[in-house]
Every structure is written in C-alpha cells, then in structure tokens.
Design goal:
This protein is of the alpha+beta class. The chain folds into three domains: about 5-150, Glutaredoxin; about 165-280, no CATH class; about 295-420, Beta-Lactamase (2-Layer Sandwich). The chain has 13 helices and 21 strands. Strands 5, 18, 19, 20 and 21 form a five-stranded antiparallel sheet that branches. Strands 14-13-15-16-17 form a five-stranded antiparallel sheet. A four-stranded mixed sheet has the order 2-1-3-4, with helices on both faces. Mean pLDDT is about 85; it is low at about 1-50. The structure holds zinc ion (2 copies).
Length: about 425
C-alpha cells in the first residue's frame, strides 16, 4: 500500500541508514574541504573551458548504488538533471565505486549533496535524503531561480524510473507490494491475477461485470497465515480484525483451530468466506460501485445522504452520476490533511484550501492515447509542493497535474452510459 504512513516509514528508514553508512574516513574535514575545493576548480576548468559553455551552478550528490536513501535520491536527481538543465547542473558520484571521490569532497556520510555556484564555490551542503522541493527551495534561497516551471503544473509523460518489481510481487488491483502472508490469487483461463490481500480481490470482484460470485470465488486461493501455503478461499477460516487506524485486517487460515489460537493472540472475529464477502462488499464507491474501506475513501455528502468515493476523482463523479450538488472531504495523498470541495450545478462552489491541486494519473496506450491509470493513481493535495513530494516517491508514475475544477469537469462531461461502466475493468478512461 502506498500510504502516507509508508512514506514516513521509508523516510525513517532512510534517516537510520544515513547514520549507519557513515564513511569512516581518517581525514580531517579541513583537509577534505581543501581537496574538494581544488577538485571542483579543476573539474570546472576541464569541462567548461574547451566548450566555451555558459557556467552554471552545480549540485553534486555523493552516494552509492545500494544505500536506501541514495536509491530514493536517484529519481529526483534524474528529474533535476532533465528538467532544470538550463538552470543548474546535477551530478551523481558513486563513492563506493570511486572511494577517492568521496575523500576529495571531504564527505563523512552518504548521501551528501553539495551546492556550488557557477564559479565552483561551495554554497551549502546537506547530508541524508533531500527531496526535490527542498532542493529547489534551497536553490531559490541561494539565488538560483528554478521555480518558473512549476506555474504551468507538473507533467510527467515518461516514468522517472522503471518499476522493476517482479510482476508476481505487484498487486493487480492497487499496484502495491504483495504481502507473502496475505497474497490472494484468481486463476483465469490463461493467466492468473495476483492481489496483495483478499481486500484487493473484492475490489477486483466489484469492478468486473456479468459474473456470478460463486463462479469467480471458486477460482480464488488465499494464503494460509500460519503455513504460507495457498488454500481455496471458500473453505478457509478468516480472522477479521482492525488495525490502529480502524482499517480492517484479514488473515486467512487453513483450519479453525489455528485461527482460534491466533484470535487469542491478536483478537478479531473468526468468520467464514461468506461473512467476509458481505462485509467487504458492504461499502461501495458512489460513482464506480467498487468495494472500498471507508478509511481509504473520500467522504461524499449529497443532500442528507452520506456516501463514499473510492478515490478523489470518483468523489467528483458522484455529482455527475447523481446530478446533485455534493460536499466532499478528501485527504491529501501525502499528508492526509483535509481538502473540502463543494459543488453547485456541476461547478466548484467552494474549495478549501484554495491552493489544493489534483493529480490525474494516466498511462499511454500502445496507440499513443493517454488514459486514466485507475483509481489507485489519482489524488488531491493541499498544494503543488505536496504533490511533487508524493511524485518523488513514485518514480514510475505518469500523468499530469490538473485543477480540482478540471477533475470535476472531466466527470461532468461523461454520458450516462460512460458513467454506468465507470472504472469497470478494461473500460476505465
Ligand atoms: Zn492491492
Ligand atoms: Zn470509484
């Protein structure tokens, strides 16, 4: 799951790793700095003199291929290199491959980012993971203007990094990592669908059309929490609990006795597949009808009725489907801060905060057409800076920034037929 909580954990891990990968150098920092200066001057002369190119400020990131925060820096550096090439240079040095370079720059930890002016004078250095927005803000503070691009909105047509996860470890529905203890799969005619959890199977089930529950259920296997073996879903026992955020947790067991033992250790209710199914399918998106946990959803109020949108864009779609004015409470995709939207006659009547923006996650088809990347790749953010940080952590994501008004307008223009098949698998656009 790509939740804000996960990002925080990653950052915490990153911070810990920075501390752990301190480079044990014998050099005193003073000697290192002096050598770094010498090296910078030399490099600048070598690279710029023969080309007679304009001198640019320079950002040097010293890291290593396998350090976790360094890996997180990679897509950010690639974007900076590509998008801000006319404002400053961005360089990466692998200090494990070239240990002498690390010594030259006098660094003690990786990753370290060093900011130089156009003359090669060091302006600032930072240790640890450094996000794109923070880097751009630092350049601005140092007098290098890099903000002009953001006013037009963020567009990402190419992934910054390719998703290299093996396909059998990626959830077909939510694109999240498949947890080995809750892996769920559905056998198809030719291929099987892999899900991170029974919950994502039920989302899948609610987004396919013209199928009978019994027929599909018979093809589903879940993972026995105790042994890790795949077992038929319909005969398993389930422990249905709740995590600290109130979000349901589902554990499957091959036999009732093991489920009962686990129940004593971690609480929850022992239920059958049929009970689990009715719980999982009880709450639906008021636009696309998918199963959704309220904890993951946007709250939508229409008239005196309360419902849910499974994603931010679906929440706007409720106004189109019901032809009513709606009030939406969405959560910032990065921080969870509340964003409130009120509509009037298919237009935005109120938006809080006014700086809020939307991300329209899209993929390019083989024919070159941009289509929605699905509910799990959409989001609202209290401002564009939060969106950028969220994207920095999702290098494989493509799409573009749009206004919340545009997200609503995109739904309002749909015909009743288009709304009827909204986000049914294979018909989502
Ligand atoms: Zn999933
Ligand atoms: Zn939906």
């Amino acid at each position: 799951m790509k939740t804000p909580a996960k990002i925080l954990i990653l950052l915490a891990v990153a911070a810990a790793v920075v501390a752990a990968v301190a480079l044990k150098q014998n050099k005193t920092p003073a000697t290192g700095d002096a050598q770094a200066q010498a090296s910078v001057t030399a490099t600048t002369q070598v690279t710029t003199a023969p080309l007679v190119a304009a001198k640019l400020p320079r950002l040097v990131d010293l890291g290593a291929g396998k350090c976790i925060p360094c890996k997180m820096m990679k897509p950010i550096l690639d974007e900076l290199k590509r998008d801000y090439a006319s404002q400053f240079k961005t360089e990466f040095i692998d200090v494990w491959e070239s240990p002498d370079e690390g010594k030259k720059y006098g660094i003690e930890m990786i990753p370290t980012q060093i900011f130089y002016d156009a003359e090669g004078k060091e302006l600032f250095r930072h240790t640890g993971f450094f996000g794109k927005e923070d880097i751009l803000a630092k350049w601005k503070e140092l007098g290098v203007n890099s903000g002009a691009k953001s006013s037009a909105g963020i567009v990402r047509e190419q992934p910054v990094a390719v998703d290299t996860r093996p396909r059998d470890q990626v959830c077909f529905m939510c694109d999240g990592d498949v947890n080995a203890k809750t892996k769920t799969l559905v056998k198809g005619e030719t291929e099987q669908r892999i899900f991170c959890s029974p919950h994502c199977y039920f989302i899948y089930f609610s987004s396919i059309v013209g199928v009978e529950a019994k027929t599909v259920d018979a093809k589903v296997s879940v993972t026995d929490w105790a042994s890790g073996n795949l077992i038929p879903a319909t005969t398993a026992s389930y422990l249905y609990g709740m995590d600290a955020k109130g979000r349901p947790t589902v554990k499957a067991f091959a036999d009732k006795a093991t489920a009962a033992t686990e129940q004593q250790a971690s609480s929850g209710n022992a239920v059958s597949w049929d009970v689990l199914r009715s719980k999982e399918l009880a709450t639906r998106c008021a636009f696309c009808d998918r199963a959704v946990y309220p904890e993951d959803a946007c709250a939508v109020k229409f008239g005196t009725t309360h419902g849910y949108g499974c994603c931010t864009h679906c929440s706007m779609g409720v106004a189109a489907r019901l032809k009513q004015n709606i009030e939406v409470e969405a959560k910032d995709g990065l921080t969870g801060e509340l964003i409130r939207v009120k509509t009037l006659d298919g237009q935005i009547a109120a938006l809080e905060p006014a700086t809020a923006v939307a991300w329209f996650g899209q993929n390019k088809t083989a024919e070159g057409k941009w289509v929605s990347a699905g509910c799990f790749k959409q989001g609202f953010f209290v401002n564009a800076a939060n969106l950028q940080k969220w994207l920095d952590a999702r290098p494989a994501m493509t799409g573009r920034q749009i206004t919340i008004a545009q997200a609503l307008a995109d739904k309002m223009k749909l015909s009743p037929e288009q709304i009827a098949k909204a986000c049914k698998l294979g018909e989502c656009n």
